[in-house]
Design goal:
With about 120 residues, the chain is an all-beta fold. It is built from no helices and five strands. It has one domain.
Length: about 120
């Protein structure tokens, strides 16, 4: 129902800073009322926040290259038990269609980008 997005980016003398904020509000989830108690799920997802950030530095004039470090999902928010009956893939209750949020946690990365002219 509610959603908000903001991105802040700044560059100075070869340095670049980038920050993204994403608020995802509640969403309706198809009902699981006919499932056994172990496989019941809520009818709405909770609201959650995703934040990403990156810092990069550009070096060189003739052959510029960037070195960068960043992180995604800074709060490490994950949907728990995203797949119903995931340990029983041939069960009639197996359901992988109710994923409403991130299933992987925080990811930190670094890298090097080389540009050819």
């Amino acid at each position: 129902m509610n959603r908000a997005f903001a991105n802040l980016a700044y560059g100075y003398r070869g340095w670049k800073f980038d920050y993204t904020f994403n608020l995802i509000g509640q969403k309706r989830i198809p009902g699981t009322a006919t499932n056994p108690p172990a496989y019941l799920r809520r009818t709405q997802s909770p609201a959650y926040v995703l934040m990403n950030a990156q810092v990069s530095k550009t070096l060189g004039k003739k052959y510029p290259m960037d070195f960068y470090i960043g992180a995604e999902n800074l709060y490490n928010f994950k949907q728990r038990d995203a797949i119903i009956a995931g340990d029983q893939p041939f069960s009639p209750y197996f359901d992988a269609s109710l994923v409403w949020g991130p299933v992987t946690g925080r990811m930190i990365y670094l890298g090097w980008r080389f540009r050819l002219k």
